Amino acid sequence: MDVKPKAAGKSSINHIDQDLAFENIMVGSRATYLDLGCGAGNYTLALARRLGAGSLVYALDLWEDGIAALAESAREEGLGNVEPKVADLSQPLHLPTGSVDAAFMATVLHDLPESARPGLMEELCRVLVPGGIFALIEFKKFAQGPGPSSPDKRIGPEDADRLTAPHGFVRDTVVDLGEFTYLARYIKK
């Protein structure tokens, strides 16, 4: 049974400065990355193309059709560094402890139930190496443009700080990615 998450099939990749975003996500060409809530993999594929062989990008999403589309796209492009997996982000991640160098979540956190967010942060802390990076891309707290229609449903950098800090993350920087989006980068203590 295919569960289609709320915003399945939508991507914010065309609303961001991709060079700036990936500059703040990438930690090396021979690293392991994690795309949380990858959908059909627009961000995953863009990152995998930039990294090339020697890297690995895990791509997790609950949407089975999106994961299948990502697997097919990666195969067609010859991107053997992409490992798509169907996964519920509100449950434990089926990845080894300390196996990920950098993780990112692009305009997905606002759709995840608030009750599931602390558990995801705990799992993210578990799978990241010490000193690992977590980059959160979200919509600015505006009442217009793409993303949630109400600013109250959007996650600003301070909201993200309150969520990540109890799980051992320290904000490193906030980067403006365009008119509607920003990236907050955290380091795992």
Automatic annotation (TrEMBL):
Keywords: Methyltransferase, Transferase, Ubiquinone. One of its GO terms (molecular function) is demethylmenaquinone methyltransferase activity. The keyword Amino-acid biosynthesis does not apply. SUPFAM superfamilies: S-adenosyl-L-methionine-dependent methyltransferases (SSF53335). InterPro entries: Methyltransf_25 (IPR041698), SAM-dependent_MTases_sf (IPR029063). It is an enzyme of class 2 (transferase). One of its GO terms (biological process) is methylation. Its EC number is 2.1.1.163. Pfam families: Methyltransf_25. Residues 34-132 form the Methyltransferase domain. PANTHER family: TRANS-ACONITATE 2-METHYLTRANSFERASE-RELATED. This is Ubiquinone/menaquinone biosynthesis C-methyltransferase UbiE. The lineage of its organism: Bacteria, Pseudomonadati, Thermodesulfobacteriota, Desulfovibrionia, Desulfovibrionales.
